[in-house]
Design a protein that fits this description.
By secondary structure, the chain is α+β, with helices and mostly antiparallel strands. 55% of the residues lie in helices and 15% in strands. A hairpin with a 2-residue loop joins strand 1 and strand 2.
């Protein structure tokens, strides 16, 4: 299981390096909160985390249903 997780992280890292447009949607969905002020920026990716959580839940359930 740890090797599969490591391979998945390796693939995500490679995608971020060589094909950044594949993950450019993350943080830009409607429902993500971004507050920019001169003193700093606050970023809360609510909808992006919901989509990611849903996708991971479906993938994990597909792997562990036997």
């Amino acid at each position: 299981m740890i090797m599969i997780l490591g391979l998945a992280l390796l693939l995500v890292g490679a995608a971020m390096t060589w094909a950044p447009w594949l993950l450019s949607w993350f943080g830009r969905l409607p429902g993500d909160i971004r507050i920019e002020r001169p003193s700093g920026t606050l970023f809360i990716p609510l909808m992006s985390m919901l989509v990611l959580s849903l996708a991971l839940t479906i993938i994990v359930n597909l792997f562990f249903r036997r």
